[in-house]
Amino acid sequence: MAIAAGFRDARVIYGYLRAPRDSIGSACMNGINIENNSDVDDNDNVTLIQNHAWCCVKVEGEYRFVDCWLASPFQPQNKNRMEPHWFLTKPTDLIYTHFPQEPVDQCLEPTIHVTTFFTLPYVWAPFFTQHIKMIRYNPNAITLVEDQVCHLVFRVDPSAVCFAFIEADQTNHGSEPTTTTTMRCLTQSRMAPNENGSLERIYKVKAVLPPGHDSGWLKIYAASSAVATATATVALPPLALCFHLTVQHTHHVGGGRLRPFEFVHLHPSRHEFYIREPQCYQLYPLHTYNFFVRGDDMHHKLAIKSPGGKLYKLMYYPQEHTYDGSVKITEMGKWSLVSLLNHTGVWSVVATWECRT
């Protein structure tokens, strides 16, 4: 079609299309030992499975790629919508997911090694359409020590909404089916001015692995607020990027957390609130906690509501748009951060914690 349209430099490329949780070991045909670095010293020793084909075309002196299958509304991740990102995709964008058999078909200078390809995070179209850009990204952040928390910070479009989850697999007795544990991550955002003075949205994600798991996958989903609102009731928005988390143990086997660590539960709200403290979900009886919340530019009436319905109002500091207050936990059950809806006397729930033994 490109040649018929008058483009002289157009060709089909064969290679490997990466899935979110692929590794160099699972993608390799010749059974390399990834523990032995000598096996991956050069591309001659690494042959990836050929599982996909896409097109390359030179447009106005620059190479671009077209992947009709990934653009199709029948592609499962596109949720019955055409995805224009895969038409005339830049080489620097396509290399996150597509690895051609011939290095020259990367259309990059210099080309990247297959091991570099698998150290890149897996990204999908929303990573580019929502203009996600990592802030001070440190690859060591995805290698945790013991019960360390993974911290990721990134910029997105002001209208973007993001969700994050951890998936960790457990295989029982070798041949039995693999079970997957899914845990919520703490995903919060705020608006902040950039170097040009315009406002941008900054997301912070905090994640931990479930007890007993040495690795897992941190998946971040993103969409515009309109799409996210429409899809969140039935399904998550499309996957934007995926990181492989691993853990390093410094103590004897059997240490660490015995029960899953949970972050504070956030509820949909028409206003933006950022929970600074406490960010854990579980509260302990007879402990005093400082509840510290950042709000938007409006003044809201916020309070902590006990399981029995008692309200502890938070103090508002207009210059910082923050709220705080100390509360002694004296009741078992759900504690909530609530916001008064105008002057109606109705409170909406912003976040919840639980007091339990």
UniProtKB/TrEMBL annotation:
GO cellular component: mitotic actomyosin contractile ring
GO biological process, one term: mitotic division septum assembly
Pfam families: Ig_CYK3_C
Coiled-coil residues: none
Chain ranges of the CYK3 C-terminal Ig-like domain: 269-355
Name used for this protein in its record: CYK3 C-terminal Ig-like domain-containing protein
